[in-house]
């Protein structure tokens, strides 16, 4: 199930097919078949794609002919049953696409009153997709075994991961800049967020539910290293004298001069469990911002 858009130009437009294909290839990733362009939005796990429909048989075909307009044989698709943030970058690019190339949109889901292609705004498209996405996600919640996460926390997840590369470039390769990920506990069957802490490196830490810390563990007279699951509040409280505020909302940083001081604390943190026994990671496309209907 996907939200589809079709693009048109005015018949008097001098825009060529090569212009359109060149634009998409410049800004997005072209697949091996050369017929589909996709975007993976940073480390957010959000994605969308455009498709060349020139050689696709459209048996209905009714919505491909409008007086004064000509199809450019390109469609856009964004799946439903996704976190709301999938729409942010998607419709931002659609807006850029139609403005840069002076294009018009036919929306099969919501035809205009005149039933002609129009220049929808980014906000109009996002709102239309978001409303439909919420309804469909709620209807299929149980069937698809979806996971609810509040929209404000979900958007924080997106905004932080979106800037991951920027943070790494600013701080340098000597810093650990962890990706936020979704995680589901076995015991409570609760969806939460986590981030990994590498003990040997200075690091930043976004506001998550759990911090995954690599610590020493003795098992059968043998020293091993395993991931310990520590509640975020416990981690912050124990490390408060070694952490500073970072430029991103509710984000902390431990600089190089505090790393050695933190080692003993890290080994002795109260923990919720070992990662393999505590829960499992959850794909972002199984997370939604509505509950079962």
Molecular structure report:
With 293 residues, the chain is of the alpha+beta class. The protein contains eight helices and 17 strands. Strands 2-3-4-5-1-6 form a six-stranded antiparallel sheet, with helices on one face. Strands 15-12-11-9-8-16 form a six-stranded mixed sheet. The protein has a three-stranded antiparallel sheet with strand order 10-14-13, with no helix packed on it. A hairpin with a 5-residue loop joins β8 and β9. α2 runs antiparallel to α3. The chain starts with a strand and ends in a 5-residue tail after the last strand.
Please state the average pLDDT score.
Answer: 93
The percent range for strand residues is 25-35%
What oligomeric state do the depicted chains represent? Answer: single chain
- The run of helices and strands is EHEEEEHEHEHHEEEEEHEEHEHEE
Helix fraction bin:
25-40%
How does the major sheet shape up? Answer: 6 strands, antiparallel
Q: Tell me the strand order in the biggest sheet.
A: 2-3-4-5-1-6
Count up the helices: 8
Overall, the morphology is elongated
Number of strands: 17
> How big is the Rg?
24 Å
